[in-house]
Queue: 2 jobs
Job 1
Amino acid sequence: MHLSYGQNELDRFLTPSNSLNTKKKNTVILTESIVAAAALVGLNQLWYADYPKSDFHFINDNDEWLQVDKVGHFYSSYHLGRLGAEMLQWSGATQKDQLLYGAGVGFAFLTAVEVLDGFSSEWGASSGDIIANASGTALYVSQELLWKEQRITPKFSFHTTQYAQYRPNVLGSSFAEQILKDYNGQTYWLSVNLYSFSKGSKIPKWLNLAFGYGADGMITGNEENMEVFLTPKSERSRQFYLSFDVDLTKIDTKSHFLKTIFSVLNTLKVPAPTLEYSHREGFRGRVSYF
């Protein structure tokens, strides 16, 4: 009985307000501000503090990592913005506020990170990163304005690779670090909900078709200084994927707790049979790919 009561209370708390709830809205704004500020301070201490500062400057890194890092910025900006908008929706804010202040959270936060990069002598602000950040935000906002729903969702999957062991300080020495740093194992997807483009059809509402992009054979950002690392001879190669996916937000449920869980998990692509193409190996099928 107590468990059921607790679940009902949690579900009631997670239920979006029908009209503006000022208390909820202020809570969202305060929480986002504190989390963003703490993240930037922590990032500055853990990532930038060990490197000398410099005057603000830009670098051109658009040819590095076969642009997998840029797609990562696109993905991150989209989902940070989506989260910000959904939190404001929970508070009962208007669609205008959701898109203007909520969806802009991702772009604003990642732009602040670019500023930190710009003042570090080790790195520099990247115009390519800024464009990717803006594009991720634009994908979310444009779909809300055009369709009032998200029909195309960026998603992520990851597998470990052989390359991290040869340069762990850059590609990651632990599994958690490799998820963030080893671009060889990252795959980014555009997951398209089929039913939303053919409403009234018998296509399951949750069924998606996903188009993926990744790359392989990368020890450095570009091909310079490859001879320094004692690695097996490998060719840098782009990889393209076609697969099925599930839009968890389209699964019918009255539970707002489950809707919240599904919204969080919908950032990841589910493992599924996949067709892969690369210039190096041509077409090949995978029974399951993540």
Job 2
Amino acid sequence: MSTLVESEEHKSLREAVSAFARTQPHVLDADDGKRLWQAAAKLGYIGVNLPEAYGGGGAGITELSLVLEELGAAGNPLLMMIVSPAICGTVIARFGTEEQKREWLPPLADGTRLMAFGITEPDAGSNSHRITTTARRDATTGDWILTGRKVFVSGVDIADATLIVGRTEDARTGRLKPCLFIVPRDTPGFGRRPIDMELNAVERQFELTLDDVRLPADALVGDEDAGLLQLFAGLNPERVMTAAFGIGMGRHALGKALAYARERTVWKTPIGAHQAIAHPLAQAHIDLELARLMMQKAAHLYDAGDDVGAGEAANMAKYAAGEACVKAVDQAVHTLGGNGLTREYGLGRLITASRVARIAPVSREMILNYVSHQTLGLPKSY
């Protein structure tokens, strides 16, 4: 299948999601978000990428990213789509035991349960090799005991469990290796504290503490020795979905600016007739379209099973979408002038929100490092 031109099936899905999204009220709080999530799940949109055998749509990240983009373009992006079906659902579907799949995939697909994802730590930042959350075996019971901290974990308060990235000790080398654990929300020793953010978003951010959290042996997802393979099976879809998040937000802002520029008249013609207004908006549209092409390439490679190729493309897509989103929002606000900062038009809040696409889940500088090393073969500086 070509990644340059959408199939008729994908066009139909895009139109259906767009029509649905436009009928939904603007999400203002957690209750609104829950209603939208459940409504989208009922139509099969939330679990479109999960296996049919477990209640999903049997499609891929390509289709899930399309859903998120259209929700965002309508002004209602669901941040937890990046996390629950894309990261957690994908990891469990690919590496989970049959019991884990039966327990988690159907409710993740139908929207009755959510899962958060915890990887970032206060002292590790973008360096996942410095993760200090450790998991050790209880020699008597076989249980896992997790200790550590996580920060900037989205939606922990509304999630039924969090997929935690910890590190276990390799018995052969003594080195720590990354592993994934399902930690139910009410597990003893699993604490959370909301982070006071200036980001205007329905989904809150949390700091997590794991104080000798005891988990059964079957809380481990996948092979203890698979390490980075399993981790990046979730991180590549995360980057693709963050690109979709940014592209949708950019399209939403651009749409508001275009509607305003067509009608607003200061001299004799609408301001959109003036090239100083029209050209930057046209450039924003071009940048968003280019970012979408790379996002579609990344999703296509991932769904085709090319994890290496998808890694490169997903990082590029996330970079391109983050830049395009910030520029589109900035130009939209500028087009409206003072009105761009009023609550009526709803663009001011996007100034902060658009930065998320640049910062999370990996900064643009770390993506440039990745491309420098992995693609261009330049030496590392760290």
